[in-house]
Amino acid sequence: MAVELKHLYADVQSEYDLKLLTTSCFGKKIGWAHMVEEKEFACLLHGDELVFNSGLNFTSEEWLREFIDSLISVHAGGLIISLHTGNTVSKETIEYCNRKHFPVFSSSWNTPYIDVMRKFSEILLKNEQRETNLITALKNAIYYPEEERLYLKHFEHNGFFRDMSYTVIILSCYTYDTESGNERLRQIENILRYVFRKSIIYEEKGRLIILAAGYLISRLRKEFGKICREDVNIYAGVGTTEKQIADIHNSYENAYTAYRLTKTTIPKNLLYYDELGIYKILADIKEPSIYPEFVKETLGALMEYDQVKHTEYMKILRAFFENDCCILRTAKALYCHKNTLNYKISAIKEILDYDIMSNENRVRIMMSFYILNLGEYYF
């Protein structure tokens, strides 16, 4: 719900005496504007604020540097400082802010801060309402896709047209949850807003729901791949890329399927729905309650035998099928002699009381193992 600082600056530059001292605004996004006079009050900021300072306490470069450091430490979005007659911001301090990617502006003593802040506040509130409308429109597109009147107007009014490519991504990092919130999730959201300018992002149940509009899958792979490689505590599922606004709900459902599998079945923290293989069918089934009965019919006798006799026949059978039902490869994988393995496979066949090598039964057994991979979360 923030606005890029460069846009705020462009709206007031010609009207008020404000000068950008750093080389750029560094892509900063501003959530609100506040007056802060001393570094001791910086800790009250929440982050992404544009800070106004009267300059009354600007008595030395040392003071200014410490004040700037206090703002950087709480992730403020920038500083506008009023310069009295004879006061200047040194070249060294400006270079320091450039290295820190912290934008600094100067204003004259006569600049009416209250008017500038009011104008910024109006822009920020208008943008917040725009974001709220877009988030509501996205939720309606997901949950009520047939009711285009609930979302199409807001989308198209903001440049999200009917015939664009749309991809939904679901991302979380619950490891960083605290009583005061999830700072890591907020940081990721800010990164994504900067990287994907044409997007809608909102938080739901501790997860980010991201709609990326007009981006190739290669771009999504690059950016989300980087984020998930750098932090294994981040989990993300990427849905299908749809070509119509009315099909956004499909991408969301597929993203949710991929996201759930990252936490239960497939040992990766970033999954694309298009790469799920057989799990597309298993995870998308509308009546998962049939799974336990199917597994019981197929492997129940063997599971019960293992539990009572403390054997590991389920493990052996899984290894056997993972190695294409090849005795030699399975024996090597399990570090046992082929004759020993042959004896155990024969015992498994006797317990199950059906031909595990027939085409139909091989399919049933493999399906059962895939279902077991899904875990009880899907049952």
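(the above was protein one; protein two follows)
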Amino acid sequence: MRELVEFIAKSLVDNPDEVVVTEHETDDEILVELRVAAADMGKVIGRQGRIAKAIRAVVKAASSNSDKKVSVEILG
């Protein structure tokens, strides 16, 4: 999932070198944290959070084969 989120985020932002994606795994959940430059936060979140919701929807669809819940957090 980390690679998917990283690919999507780097495609959206002006500073792809500053995109950092980390993945934390527990027994029943995978947490993917996305960090981008402050100037790119609006591009990743989108108007009324539409792009952030779309990223989460794509990750959820991609993880449907997995038994673990996958959640994406966008950190400033």
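Reviewer note on protein two: The domain at 2-75 is CATH 3.30.300.20 (GMP Synthetase; Chain A, domain 3).
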